Amino acid sequence: MLTFAFRKLLTLVGTMIGIAALTFLITNVAPGDPARLVAGPNATEDMVATIRSEYGLDKSLPEQFSVYMGDLARGDLGTSIVTTRPVLEEVMRYAPATLELVFVAMFLGIIVGVPLGMLSAVYKDGPLDHVTRIFSISGVALPAFWFGIILQLMFAVDLGWLPVSGRLPLVTRPPEFYTGLLLVDSLISGRFSTFWTSLQHIILPAIVLSFPCLASILRVNRAEMIEVLQSDYIVAARAHGIASYRIVALYALKNAMLPTLAMIGLRFGWMLGSTVLVETVFDWPGIGLYAVSSALSSDFKPVVGVTLMIGFFFIVANTLVDLAYAWIDPRLRRA
Amino acid sequence: MTEPLLDIKDYRLHIATFDGAVHVLKGINLTVNRGDTLGIVGESGSGKTVLVRSVLGIGPRNSKVLQGSIAFDGQDITHLSEKDWTKIRGIRISMIFQDPMTYLNPLFTVGRQIADVIAAHEKAAVNGVSSKAARRTRTEELLDQVGLPNPSMLFSQYPHQLSGGMRQRVLIAMALAGRPDILIADEPTTALDVTVQAQVLDLINSLVEKLNLTVIMISHDIGAIATIAKRCAVMYKGEIVEQGLTSDILNRPQHEYTQRLLAAVPDIDAAAEKLPAEPAATEPAKPGILLEAIDLKKVYRSQSGAEFTAVNSLSLSVKTGEIFGVVGESGSGKSTLARMLLSLIEPTSGDVIFDGTNITGLAGEPLRQMRRHMQFVFQNPHSALNGRHTIGDAIGEPLRIQTSMSRRDIEARAEALLDIVQLPKSFKYRYPHELSGGQKQRVCIARAIALNPRLLILDEPTSALDISVQAQVLDFLQELRSELGLTYVFISHNLAVIRQICDRTIVMKHGEIVEQGRTENVFLAPREAYTQALIESGRKTSQAATLRPGS
């Protein structure tokens, strides 16, 4: 198991280097002279040349690449042109908001999706199964920006139960910084009212973000459960007198979780990518919003930084899924 | 006289299907007394599994009891609630299954699975659940009882780390966890190697004595039934056609079906009444050798770098028109060999020569052309057919891939093929699940001969089939050979079958040939100790069935 984990970590490093190389390539293939862009429309040729040498853009591509990789290794993602601050610092500032949103959405997706999938399989073709089928189809079909706006209109504007947007009201002082996740930090510093407010803020965007993910988890889990429930070892477990609920919730679920986990890993990456839309609708100060505003002002370093960041978390999530696989399935541990 | 332990009276059951109700059990009357050992013989589809599963209340979904009752120890259990079942199922009546590979959950340790069963029983008995340590001790006792070495180590092992025989023992241990009155064994040896079969039967016999168990064993293997059961019932199409003492039934079968069944058992000690090899009708392109393997080797490498040699420097030659037997236990490399002969997997080294052409290096179109001449029939006809294609589609598939025949021609050819394999033409509209095992295997054979191949490689083509069906398929294969001038490579672990049909045979062990020669010579005068042991254990299970006079 340990060698398995170690090998997975090595793969993680390898993939990370691959992603870095790829983002470098894409930024260099993209049309336009970055130096001219930085210098602005009124710059003279001299200024552009200065900037070019300042940023090392006059060097050969392999040289630039080694400088870029060297900077990355030291954690230097470059400097944002608009804010003139290091990109890493900014990404680190915005990342917790996004991660918090993704975690809560994922949590919702799993705790709702897995049991519903399980129940739909047990009561296959029953009323519940039909309801969850409609539910999951709409989950995949509804566009996030539309669904988000509808929820805002209903729960925030009409009913007034929940705030429309943002992470915390302007008047609320954020809790002390431990993890950057407001829900966690407010609990650590014992400020339960802040916890409650931030929970109210996060609930709508989390639902919007989690809906498609929930739907696919539900469907995968249902299909897999149906398959597993027909397998021989489930018949054997029944014959040996093990109670039905235990068979379903323990024996069958564990077997059905394997493909579901793969779906969860994939959806995690997808969610990080689609926060861009949700964050825009809910004015959520995360890396999605940061990337959009940077891209609009032709500020490329932050976009690259955010891409790397998302890539990093995606790989980490999938490595965790791989490890969970091995933890669940003993047959994989030797591989 | 004491009341019987299990009393089944005029039990009728049907299963609702898409095409209407199918009467699966038609008035079963059966009594089992305490200490009895009852064998139920019958082919697949005869209703024997449905019958014993009904005794455990785990019958198929959509099934409905029309009439009759099942009483266990004086209590009517025909329509028991799920809650009441928990007091009986697995505790007073328990069951072991056919395939130990699939009846254990791969994700839980052996110990956990048995301990869970113990906990479930304690819960049902409302005596409170014992401690984890107590359950572990009891589990290890059970593992020891079924003759497994080193129970404490075994406790934390997973099913995939055990051999087939060990898994079957684990399942038996699980079934014994509740100290049951009745043990139902559903084909407990079918999926095991011959040498292991004998061991598992010995174990069941010793448990019957030690624990005073009542055993109901289902099998299509009459040898296995004779080893275990004092009494025996023969089922045919949902009815019990004959019951009585096993020795009586074997010696003086009354019902026509039983007679047929007994006649179909291949006898390991009987010389084959084979059609002569190389029938005159065939005219091989080049007389002599059709398929040759030279120094064939396959090494598998696991990710951790460990090497496993599945087939080691093996050479053989198959003559045109003969049936070439390959015998060996599971893991001996038979299937790897077969797949290499067909270029389905690449050998690590060595060559395969088919009709004078070296096919090892072939790829793409030339290989595809070559495939027309060599076809494969798989072991398990249930998984070799795509469940979503009709039989007509399945048979027509090689024609669609390899020829430019029109739809109509393909359809006509598929009908002709169904005719050759003696199935009605209307079958082309059916789906695989509507066919029995034997019928499916015939369809697989029809598909394999669709392109008029010259060589058929058959990987255990009968081991998933019932005995009487097996006999039919074997006869049919021999007929087909003389009709179409085919050459077979026939792989099997069943020695009696090999002896019945093969001209020459090789015996494989650990990827190497330990013995080869004309089949009769191998059987009558085996030179190697391994071959002798194999024949001996094969004889043990088939012996009982040959008690009958006249064989």
Task: Please characterize this protein's 3D structure.
The complex is a heterodimer of chains A (335) and B (551). With 335 residues, chain A is mainly α. Helix content of chain A is 77%, strand content 0%. Chain A has helices at residues 2-29, 34-39, 45-54, 61-73, 87-122, 127-141, 144-158, 182-188, 192-229, 232-239, 244-282, 287-296, 300-328, 330-333. In chain A, helix 5 packs across helix 9 (192-229), helix 11 runs antiparallel to helix 13 (300-328) and helix 12 (287-296) packs antiparallel against helix 13. The longest helix of chain A has 39 residues, at 244-282. The radius of gyration of chain A is 24 Å and the shape is globular. The mean pLDDT of chain A is 84. Chain B has 551 residues and is of the alpha/beta class. Helix content of chain B is 37%, strand content 25%. Chain B is built from 20 helices and 20 strands. Chain B has helices at 48-55, 82-85, 110-124, 132-145, 151-154, 164-176, 194-211, 222-228, 246-251, 256-264, 334-341, 364-371, 381-384, 391-402, 407-420, 437-449, 467-484, 495-501, 519-524, 529-543; strands at residues 6-17, 20-32, 37-41, 63-72, 75-76, 93-96, 182-186, 214-219, 231-236, 239-245, 289-301, 307-319, 323-327, 349-354, 357-358, 374-377, 455-459, 487-492, 504-509, 512-518. Chain B has a six-stranded mixed β-sheet, with helices on both faces. Chain B has a six-stranded mixed β-sheet with strand order 16-17-18-13-19-20, sandwiched between helices. In chain B, a hairpin with a 2-residue loop joins strand 19 and strand 20 (512-518). The longest helix of chain B is centred in the middle third of the chain and has 18 residues, at 194-211. The radius of gyration of chain B is 25 Å and the shape is globular.
